[in-house]
Structure formats: C-alpha cells, structure tokens
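Re: that chain you flagged

S.,

Sorry for the slow reply, it's been a week of failed gels. I finally had a moment to sit down with the sequence you sent. For the record, here it is as I used it:
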Amino acid sequence: MKIEKIEFVCSSPSLKLCPNEDIPEFAFIGRSNVGKSSLINMLAGQKGLAKVSGTPGKTRLLNHFKVESAIGKDSASSSWFLVDLPGYGFAKLSKAQKEKFEGLIQSYLQNRENLALTFLLIDSRLEPQKIDLEFMNWLGDNEVGFVILFTKTDKLSKTQLNNNLSAYQKALSASWVELPTIIPTSAETKYGREDVLETIGEALREIEKGC
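Prediction finished late last night. Pasting the structure tokens below so you have them in one place:
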C-alpha cells in the first residue's frame, strides 16, 4: 500500500466530537514514552505530522489524520483515518486526569463503530511490562482487534530483539491461545514500515470485499 496524501483533521476531547465521516479508522496507542509520534511520522513520511515531545504524555485528545492511499495496483484511492490516541502509563497526571483519559481511550476503543484495527506500541528494549500485558488482556476481553508494534528496534542487536520477542510471546502464551501479530519497527531506520502499511492495506481490502 502507498500513502498518497495525509493531513490533520481535528483533535477531539470526546467520542461524540470525532469526525462523523464513515470511513475505516486505524488507531495507534502505547505507553506515553514509547515513541508513538515518531512512528506515526515515519509511516506518514512527514517528520512534523504528529508532534514529538520530550515530555511523555502530551497527547491528551483523539487526533484524527485523514489518509488517501492506493491499496493495489489497479484499485482506486482509498480513504481512512489514522487516529493518534492518548498514551497510558508514566505521564505525570493527577488521579482525576488519569481517570478522564482512561475513560476517553476506553470509550473510543469500545464504541467507535468504524474502528478497523488498533496498533499497540511496545518498547522492544524492555522485558514484558505488567501494564502492557493488562492492557492487551483488556483489549482481548473487549474484542478489540489489535496488532503489536515493537518500537525502537534499532537500539537492539538482532539477538537481543529475538530474545525480547520470545519473552513477550512466552508471557502472552499464559493468557492467549492465539497470539496477536507482532511487527518489529524502527522510526529511525523505517524498519517495518511496509509491513505496517500492508497490514492496513489488507484490512482495507477485506472491508471493501464486505461492502
């Protein structure tokens, strides 16, 4: 799949204020220091599209970017939304703020009818984290389809990356019969970009077949 055009549409503080255009949405979420903005910019091919901050937890709204892409050699351009969700975890927020953002995330993931797939970003350098595993189980319990994107893989050797992948697969096996798809990525080297875009393209093709 090839992205032809992408532009910021709006930031929404609630689900009811999100765009009402009936096109598929692909959401990106992860802990607040996982490198989400950098990865989104890498996928889009635009460095300044999603704002990268040195302070974790700056994304506090539902950010919609409209994408026009070609999903096949002979197919017409296809429209979809890339949605940048607030992060979870280490952001320095009050209890009330955390509950507000958790409610916003859960409301979107549970109730957004045109959500096609969620990409959950995980820092590849870390051993399996309880907060991430709990969030994955919540997604599974709520039947939210997701793919895991391992970020920052350029910081690891091939052996280290394989070991960390195996550790996550082992941890997931304790709760999951069928393991989620895992795609290693790097915003620095663009590693995994084509795999992520093809995953989106495949989902779009399946949606078109079902129309």
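What I noticed first: The domain at 2-210 is CATH 3.40.50.300 (Rossmann fold).

Talk soon,
D.
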